Amino acid sequence: MEYCLETHDLCKSYGRFKALSGLTLHVPKGAIYGLVGRNGAGKTTLLRLICGLQRPDSGHYTIYGVDGRDRNIGSIRRRMGAVVETPAFCRDMTARDNLVLQYKALGLPSYDGIDEILRMVGLSDTGQKKAKHFSLGMKQRLGIAVALCGHPDFIVLDEPVNGMDPEGIVEIRELILRLNREQQITFLISSHILEELSKLATHYGFIDSGVTVKEISAREWEASCRQCIRLTVSDTKAVCCALDGMGETPGGKVEYAVVSDSEVDVFGEVNITRLVVTLQKSGCEVLSLHERSESLENYYINLMGGGNHA
Amino acid sequence: MRDLLSEGFYRLFRNKAFWCVLAFEAAYKTYSLLHNWCNVQRLRSNGTNAGIPFDELLYEYAGIALLTSCILIPLLIGGDYADGTLRHRLIKGYRRTSVYLANWLVSTGGMLLCVAADWMVSFTLGMVLQEEPISSPAHILLMLTIGVGTVTACCSVNAFVVMLIPHKTVAGAVCFCLLALTVLVGMRIYDALSLPEYWYDYVVSTSDGFRQYDMYPNPHYVSGSRRQVCLFVYDFLPFTQSFELAANSLYGNPVRMLLCSLGITAASTVGGMAAFVRKDIR
Questions:
Q1: Distance CA A33, CA B75 (A)
Q2: What is the average pLDDT across A36-52?
């Protein structure tokens, strides 16, 4: 697999506080990589390091295969866009002027793409309104618009939907998905809103205390936390027989797993009435029945050992 | 670098603080010229043959520029930090030395434009309201060059401070404190250098106007190598340079003053770049 960003044993300390203690991550090309971790886990420090704002104490990282210490890293960074912590723009300028400023900084000869970027982020009708008068959500969008200047193919976003209204969150989500799908832009997104992240990310990196706890693709995660119905019954064997019998129907084989002497997880859709009736006929008592769906939040909490929240 | 400068000047010309400082410089010079012209007119109406030569007030911009640079540069570079635009340039892969140099050039350029606004008023309104200059064009040019050197040196020091202290209020306070320190040191040195070598015991006027006096050495007189050091520091400090310029009389060596400004500019810029390269940006 080709990686857009790889970090190897990154360490960074602020005084006596170790923000990163040997963090290793792999962001595949074309992925939307969700970086998950509680406050102080080292997410922003990692973003600062890969954006060149700070230097690691030890370890190294590569962006598109070029080492962060390499002299050519500058030209590679031109292919990057980022919104780290707070969106970067001049408060006394309009959205359009901010993009003109960015185009100038990038040495882009034509301002043709500015209107398209403003339209994409939903700021095309802000006119002469200065950025300092923008709402929090508009500021976030302007930050993303600034990051989009110069056609980057790797964008780093730190809490991109922070402070946004639900409509804005959906718009930004759709924008990220569209950019990823249509322009193959790789995203590295740090977010506390795990539910939102789960609607976007193709890969996840869970970090805690400056180290990577787990890297997992969205497919692997979905497979490991599929929706199921947990049945608590008096006789699990009867349940197995009943479910096997139901598998003969046109719906196909019903997948299930015996969790304990009295619990069975049934995956996929199943006709509950028919199942209960079948079990009743075979003398098996259904003590309880509830749907289990493991959200990213639950997955994260289980992974971190509970108690800690993102 | 060219792109950074293009962006920097675009930002500068859209900065209200810059236009305020520029307008202040021009307004102050206008006020100064008009105020002195009114005084001259009043004296002339009393029968006194008064007049102010063109080059009398020409160099007072340096002191004002030192003061305003302590406001403008923290606002420009500190604003750049606060907005995150400086951070964004680093994210986009610009070298830190280029970012530092661009910010230094833009802020110094901005201050020199403010000085140019002062000159514009001097060379237009001043020409009309004032008398012929006393000094030669070469001397005027030398004084203006020293002034530019003084302002550039001060801007470099301020840029050094602000690039390393991202908080613009704190950076501004540090710039003011540094300026106040140089004012204090400069005034002490000026006082020390102004002390007479001898005290006059008494003066006797005779009928033919001949004056006799006894004199004895001043124990506080600064002499020898100490005097040389004081003279060097006096030439070295931007504030004392501006003080000399405003008085239109060079106490020290003009070449040394220029070299000192150049030295301060080079040292603060190189030192600033070296420190900025190692700085963690948040």
A1: 37
A2: 87
